[in-house]
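chain below, 358 aa
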Amino acid sequence: MSDTILIVDDVPANTSVLTNFLKIVGFKILIAQNGKRAIQKVEHANPDLILMDVMMPEMDGFEACRILKSQDNTKEIPIIFMTALADTVDKVKGFKLGAADYVTKPIQHEEVLARINAHLNVYKLQRNLQVCNAQLDAFARTVAHDLKNPLNTVVGYADELVEVCTEDNLLDSDLRSQLNLVAKAGHKMEDIINSLLLFARTTKEEAIEKQSLNMAEIIQQVQERLVYTIESSKAKITVSNKFPAINSYAPWVEEIWANYISNGLKYGGSPPQLELGADILQDENIIRFWVQDNGPGLSEEAQTKLFTPFTRLHQERAEGHGLGLSIVQQIAERLGGQVGLDSQVGQGSRFYFTLPMT
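prediction:
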């Protein structure tokens, strides 16, 4: 199917020559004589690209571009201005309004064809990406409702059976061990699903509402979530009694702490000793929050692999799916911050994330 191009120009001689050339190379052509007519045709015909003259009666190209880029149904259509103006100010104005490119009159056919094809390719890639994102959202909803709910049932019954069989000694040790493995595998699947859903949510360009956070309360909530792991590992966690005030998005900040603390519990010393704190970096106008562990530390080579999805550095020490630190990075960047690590072999590791002070 041929791509459709709308040519907007009030000079018939200009549109005639350009139309004949573009039809020969395979495009479907629409024509409008001014900005107002162009807006009407775009809303009905939905062209793949617009070639827009700048100087026209009734409504010039700049105003037409501004209106088209302000509407959800037309803002993605690439607009290439055609102008005899050589003034840089006019070109900058067009780009600020959302134009994709400029071609200078008199139009050189091979040049305009090259620019049209380049921007059509970008436009098609963007539309394909939007389709893929929509499919990802649909997949996430399917996982959340069609898979997570029955899995919760399986995990719930498995946990109940483990408890009953252990208390009443209903099964021999081998069968109880196998039942424990079923329950453990169910919880692992649940963790993977939750991580994938969180990872998908943080990649979407949705607005988030920031508010003043009580960081000590958030960390306390995280410790309550991880109480079983903390107690079973006999970990000692020391938390600073003073955190700087900050505005951010509490649910995501809680997930960063949960991942960092969980990471420290898995890969820290025996038993783990974690210290949690924060530093104000005045020169950079940011706050750096951190978790210091007493683990073996990481080599420079190992540090380069951190924050990469589905990568685990200590497969022999703890099971996992390798999404935790990549989620931390995704969240921190969405909140305007960064992640990082200070570590030396034999001296533990300090994982940190930064957030802007304002």
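Residues 315-322 have pLDDT under 50 and may be disordered. The first strand starts at residue 4 and ends at 8.
thats it, cya
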